[in-house]
Amino acid sequence: MATVSPTPLLKDELDIVIPTIRNLDFLEMWRPFFQPYHLIIVQDGDPTKTIKVPEGFDYELYNRNDINRILGPKASCISFKDSACRCFGYMVSKKKYIYTIDDDCFVAKDPSGKDINALEQHIQNLLSPSTPFFFNTLYDPYRSGADFVRGYPFSLREGVPTAVSHGLWLNIPDYDAPTQLVKPLERNTRYVDAIMTIPKGTLFPMCGMNLAFHRELIGPAMYFGLMGDGQPIGRYDDMWAGWCTKVICDHLGWGVKTGLPYIWHSKASNPFVNLKKEYKGIYWQEELIPFFQSVALPKDCTTVQKCYIEISKQVKAKLGKVDDYFNKLADAMVTWIEAWDELNPSGDISAKIPNGASK
Hints:
Spore Coat Polysaccharide Biosynthesis Protein SpsA, Chain A, EC 5.4.99.30, glycoprotein, isomerase, RGP_fam, RGP
């Protein structure tokens, strides 16, 4: 009797968003895991270039001309010549969840040699609760074979919705240019079989190359900023989104998980090119982190959009004096929300989803 393969988790509720400037041959390796899902490909760079996608994938592809056509003047908020353009895919998606991956990321193997289905693990992370208000020393208590340890308050064991699942990478680590330069041969070979909720009040550097999130919950905060062409900075797009997202999740009472799943990150980008993109960010992050640590969102910020607009005002007021770039970025944050609401007119669903915020 033939075995019927089970229907993939969230098959009709998740889009895979891929930013790229090249043919997507890397999808061949992911075919067993990605083929049942809808792909949104955001082509960066020259829109006249044809990007080849392997046969058999269900996808839509947007280039810069499409972005300009769909968003009109608001297209100015979408970065050009930078992987930050991927957030356009989040905006046009109509699905509940998003998984985003870079085109130099391949299927990793677990310590037993088995291929890791990163997407399935992200989905499991998103569908299980988070525990941001009290740390469980056995990490994720909802995993098979784990539970809450002695002394964990019973009132907090139900957990809260998980908004973000942040995955990791084997082989090439996600380092900044100075670290790349001093450790050119370093490779991450350490597979840590753990998932944890990042505690409330703690920021983290979010990497966008292996990331999943609950789009209906936190999507409007997943803006990857103004980076790349015409901007004084690059390679801070995902981190900017991560800091904004974490502050909003803390305020609204949702969770962010980090750890499994791993992907195999195949090639290191040029550290000298990276340094040119990053060097202002390396200075600015010393101001940015204290800023995000001190952001206070008023009680009437009950939706992601309201929270995000409030953060943009505080960016202008406090970071505008660091550099005029932050005034431009704050304006782009508002434009992003306006464009999001135009393409997603059903209102802010996050307002209807119960959260774990302390009343």
